[in-house]
Amino acid sequence: MPKRIIWLVFFLLCVSVQGYSQLFSWLGSDKNKAKPNFLLMDRGIQIETTVAINNMYNFNFYEAEKDFKWLKLKYPDHPIGSFLLGLNDWWKIVPDTKNTSFDESCHTHMDDAIDKAEELYDDNSKNKEAAFFLAAAYSIKGRLYSERERWVKAAWAGKQALKYLDYSRGEENINPELLFGDGVYNYYSKWINENYKSLKPLLTFFRKGNKALGIKQLEYVSNNAFYSRMEARYFLVQIYSMEGQPAKGLTMARQMHALYPNNAFFHRYVARNSFAIGRLDEAETYARELLDRLDTKSYGYGDVDGRYAAYIIAYINEHMRRDYAQAKVYYMRCINYAKNNNSEDSGYYLGSNMALGRIAESESAWADAASYYKEVMDKADKKSDSYKEAKKAAGELKAKQKKKKK
């Protein structure tokens, strides 16, 4: 079972009521204006924090870190500084979740946030703000543990997050921020049910989701929320791709890429969606930008981006320009990026091998063609279209070779 799907199950535990970004919404609500120790009620602090968060999304991590450290220094007994420093580390991981170099720092900051939040939270007062920070920190830790296949720790963190989120049940109508978690829950609980039948027994413990409602809620948050707007868009960019709505995905990805031009995640999605709807000139421009960023070692750009970009350029050379020499160069680059990233089951890797097989066959390099088709059959799921296509091509190639020998 893919790690991402297992994590989503744990994530449902963490967001079945609200998501981590919702912690900010409570801080700014009228209901809490008279309560001490609730930060970000001051508009100036909100704006200052938002600037830092925008720096984080734009991969200006050093600038964001300076502001988050300032918050930690100014409020040494409060979890906010440590939490945001941990979140900053998490976004360093997002472009390539195989990168483990920031794991220790992320966990350390989140553990510090948890320790400080626990001091604010007590069984009698049950400080709401502290509960949100506890849920938020445990949610991030749970996702990171699941990326590393540490399932027991991931499950425990998810359980802790749910415990603190349960306390805030019934506050959903305060403002748009609080729809974020419900939107994610409604979409993914139904999506998992549709795509992973083996998980159905586990999902009986959760309330039923509604994909259409989830998308509608996330779209509302993406247009109306203050702090969770970008998180909603982060999910929507991926959801539109899964739902076969690349035009909507491209519109959102363009907006995000314009806001955060240094963010590799949104950059790759604007290239991918341009390609998906046939805007090939635009897709090639984005793809070449991705490779340029990769070549200049811009932060966050790596083998994942190279795999996307190389395939797009190869496809355009093969099908639009009929430049098979260049197509082969970029298909091989895609294959090498995938191997570097241990992504040999990815669609772009399999597609590159199929394309190279076709080109080799057209050049009468039959042994090479057979080798490429075999690679697809070895790496693809036997129920997938890729496997069936490769098996058919290999069979037709054998028949052609036999006929040629006669």
- What helical percentage do the residues reach? over 70%
Q: Which radius of gyration do the C-alpha atoms yield?
A: 24 Å
CATH architecture heading of the largest domain: Alpha Horseshoe
Question: Helical segment tally?
Answer: 20
Sheet-strand content, in percent, reads under 5%
Number of domains: 2
> What's the order of the H and E elements?
HHHHHHHHHHHHHHHHHHHH
Shape: elongated
Distance between the termini: 47 Å
Which residues sit in consecutive blocks of at least 5 with pLDDT less than 50? 13-37, 169-174
Structure overview:
The protein is 72% helix and 0% strand. The protein is an all-alpha fold and 406 residues long. It folds into 2 domains: 3-239, Serine Threonine Protein Phosphatase 5, Tetratricopeptide repeat (Alpha Horseshoe); 260-405, Serine Threonine Protein Phosphatase 5, Tetratricopeptide repeat. The relative contact order is 0.08.
Key features of this structure:
406 residues, mainly alpha, Serine Threonine Protein Phosphatase 5, Tetratricopeptide repeat, 2 domains, 20 helices, 0% strand, elongated
What's the layout of helices and strands?
Layout: H1 3-15, H2 23-27, H3 43-57, H4 61-74, H5 80-93, H6 103-120, H7 128-147, H8 151-167, H9 179-195, H10 200-203, H11 211-224, H12 229-242, H13 246-259, H14 264-276, H15 280-295, H16 303-319, H17 324-340, H18 347-362, H19 366-379, H20 385-405
